[in-house]
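QA checklist item 7 of 12: single-chain prediction sanity check.
[x] sequence parsed
[x] length recorded as 115
[x] structure emitted
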Amino acid sequence: MSSPDPNPPFSPSASPHPLATLPREDLDLICALVLHSGSLKDLASEYDVSYPTIRARLDKVIERLRARLSGQPADPLSDMLAELVERGEITLPAAKRVREFVRRTPSPSTSGEPT
């Protein structure tokens, strides 16, 4: 058995492990992928979706994990909107409009008005 990597890609401090910061659906996908020995074909079959669909979903998980590893905070709104687009519940242009509206709208704590 080899020794642990002396330079892990994340800081083993008191902060949560990067995987622990991902949404439950991402963790479920990662778990299923490991149980299928990394076979996207088998994973797509389990999820009853096409190979390109599961590949795109895995790419999104990888993107979120890379963001966490680089220190970017989680963006729950963008994650939720991406899931809605993926499921076909809203269109991509609608998701972009919602995200931009929320980002342009000042929160009560930054509006300068007493709360």
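[x] summary fact logged: Residues 75-106 form one domain.
[ ] second reviewer sign-off
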